[in-house]
Design brief:
mainly alpha
Length: 271
């Protein structure tokens, strides 16, 4: 009833809510909104003064911003979940990328290839320890985030762990794929670093995706780190449920199937 109150009672209150997960962006948005409201308020006051027979001094429209998810606009609340994503991604990717290539360098891969072990068993045995390490890194990161930075954890941690388990499988498949096509640890490290830097810069962690060119926004749809950053912030800061993260979950699952399928296919084992 904003218009009714403004015309009949000459008083109207305006309540504004701002998504403040990114505190810096929320401050800028709040400033723009206040400028728009104040400009409109001046137009309304002039309109009333021109059309009324009596000189009426309407009350200025008052905007009351309320910052959701990050009321104090603390940048640590925005950045810590993203740093947690980097921790899990970089360590698991680098470890898995240097895994099989290390066997190539020391000459033990040929010995493994002539054993009776199946290719699937070999790959699972190589990747499973790193999957456990990745889940452990997430646990340590969450504990430190809560104890040191007091990061809000509103949503379900079980939901976050479920998504992370799928995400780590995708990252391990990417690392295995890199390892299959490299011969030295230096090559594997450089290639993994090349991809992870691009993924991080285009994940929305430091630069909002909405501020990127249209072509870059389309490219980010194929960036798995983008979805992990969104999920961590949605679950921890907004308390999102399973249905809220379902689109990102399906895309990450498809990435995981594709990456691990390519990794298994590209690994050559001869008996």
């Amino acid at each position: 009833h904003f218009e009714r109150n403004l015309i009949k009672e000459k008083i109207a209150d305006l309540y504004i809510t701002v998504n403040a997960i990114d505190g810096a962006a929320a401050g800028v948005e709040s400033g723009y909104v206040n400028q728009i409201v104040q400009s409109y308020s001046k137009e309304v006051r002039m309109s009333f003064m021109d059309t009324s027979k009596k000189v009426v001094q309407p009350v200025i429209i008052e905007s009351i911003p309320s910052f959701w998810y990050n009321p104090t606009l603390d940048y640590k609340t925005f950045m810590v979940p993203g740093i947690l994503v980097l921790l899990v991604t970089m360590i698991t990717l680098f470890l898995s990328a240097m895994n099989i290539v290390r066997e190539k360098e020391i000459g033990t891969l040929e010995q493994i290839n002539v054993t009776a072990i199946r290719k699937s068993q070999f790959i699972i045995g190589k990747l499973f320890p790193f999957w456990v390490i990745g889940m452990g890194l997430l646990t340590i990161g969450l504990i430190l985030a809560k104890l040191i930075f007091n990061t809000p954890m509103i949503g379900s941690l079980l939901l976050l762990y479920t998504y992370t388990s799928i995400y780590i499988l995708m990252i391990l498949g990417m690392g295995l794929l890199i390892s299959n096509f490299t011969d030295t640890k230096q090559q594997a490290m450089f290639i993994a670093w090349f991809f992870v830097v691009i993924f991080i810069l285009m994940s929305g962690l430091f630069t909002p995706i909405e501020s990127m060119p249209k072509w870059a926004q389309i490219v980010t749809e194929f960036n798995p780190i983008k979805y992990f950053v969104e999920i961590v912030r949605m679950v921890l800061l907004k308390g999102s449920g399973f249905m809220d993260i379902l689109p990102q979950l399906w895309k990450t699952l498809l990435f995981a199937i594709a990456m691990n399928g390519l990794a298994v296919w590209s690994y050559k084992k001869t008996n």
